[in-house]
Fold:
Amino acid sequence: MRSALLLSFLFVAFIMNSTAQTPAELVAMWEKEHVTTILPSNVRHKDLQKYLEGLKKLGIKVDEVGRSYANREIYQAEFGKGPLKVFLWSQMHGDEPTATSAIIDMFTLLQKNRDKDWVKKIENALTIRIVPMLNPDGAENYQRRNLQGIDINRDALNLQTPEANLLKKLRDDWSPVIGFNLHNQNSLTSAGRTGKQAAISFLVVYGDAAKTTSEGHERNKRLVSAMIAAIQPYMPGYIGKYDDGFTATAFGDNFSAWGTPTILIETGAMHGKDEMFLVKMNFTAILTALKSLADGTEKTFSPVAYESLPNNSSGSLFNFIFRNATLVDRRKPDATATTTDIAINVDRRRAEFVAPAYVRQVGDLSSFFGLSEFDATGYFVVSRNSPSLKTGQLAELLFYKKSRTIDWNSSDLEKMFPPDAIFSLGKWVKGELGSSK
Ligand SMILES: [Zn+2]
Structure:
C-alpha cells in the first residue's frame, strides 16, 4: 500500500517535471503574477525605475551602466550564474516599448520562482543580462530617435550617440553568445499579403550581406521555431518574418558580425487585443526560448517553422475601410456623386492620448483589407470639416441615408440635417454602419 502510494507520488513528480512549464503554463503564470501594470506605451523612465526597484527588492542585481544624451540613467539587470551568456536589450527606439515590460515581468517571475526545477535549470545554465529601455530620452518623448535626432539603430559603426556607445561596450566587454534585439513594428504590417496583422515578427539576423550562416545562426532559427510553437496557438496566422536585408549600420546585423548571433523580435498589433496581451506573448516567447536553451530542448526543434513564416508585408491593411460610399462634393452637389471605397488609418500615440485618424485612400480598395470594414452602400458621405473628402484629411465623416433629401449647401449642415451616423476620431460617435465582412 505504502509503496503504491510512493510510486504514484513519484509518477506525479515525474510528470510534473517532464512537462515543466508548457507555454500554456507560462501564459497562466504571467496572468497571475505579472508586475507591469502600466500599458507599455504609457511607461516613462520613472516608471521603469519603479519596476527596477521591484527587481532589486527581490534580490536581482540591477546596475546603472550608462547615461543617455539627456543624462537619464540606463540600467542593466542580471539573472543566473550559468556559462551560456544571453543578452537582451529593448526600446532602442523610444516609441517601441512592448518588450521592456515583458523582460521586467520575466526577470520578476524567474526570481520569484527560483525553487522550481525549470527555473533552477535556467539559473544554472544561463547568465541573462537585460537592458530595458536603451533609449530613455526617446521613450520620454515617445519618439524613435535619441535626443540628438539620431537613430541609435543606424549608429552601430559611427557611434555618435552615447546610447550606441554603451550598447557596443556592453557587448564587447561581455561577448554574449546570443543577442535579442527587441522592437515594435507598424501595427498595419501584415503576415503575408493578408488581412491579418503581423502581431509578432521574427528575424534570425545575418552578420553579412552574403547571408553566411553559422552554428549560432542555426541554433537561433531553432529558438525562433520554439517561440513560434509557443505562441502560435494564441495568434494563429499572426506571426511574420521580418525582412532579412542586411543593414550595414544596424546593431542586430553587427552584433551577429561581432560574434553575438542575434534574434530580432518585432511586436506589431493584433486587432481586438490590447498592449498587455502582446507583453504576455513576448514574455511567453522569450522565456520559452531561454528555457529551451537551458534544458537543451531547442535541439528538438526544426528550423522549418521559422523558415516557412509568411514574410512581413506592408500597404495592404488599413484600420478602417468603408465600402461603396457615395461621396458628395458640397461645392458641386448636383454633379453625379462618386461611389467608392474610403480607407482610414489611426496614427500611433501613447494609449493615454486620443489618436487622430486620417483618410489615407479613396478609390477602388477591393484588393485591400480593413481591420474593421463597414458597408456604406445606401449612404451619402461628406467630410465634416471641408467641402469635399480627400486623402490626407482628418477622418471626420458624416453619413446620410440616400433616401433623404439634403440641401448640401446649408451653412450649418450638421444642425439643419442631422446625419444618420458620424465617424470621428476613429470611432462611431452617432449611429453606426453595418459591417461589410
Ligand atoms: Zn525599432
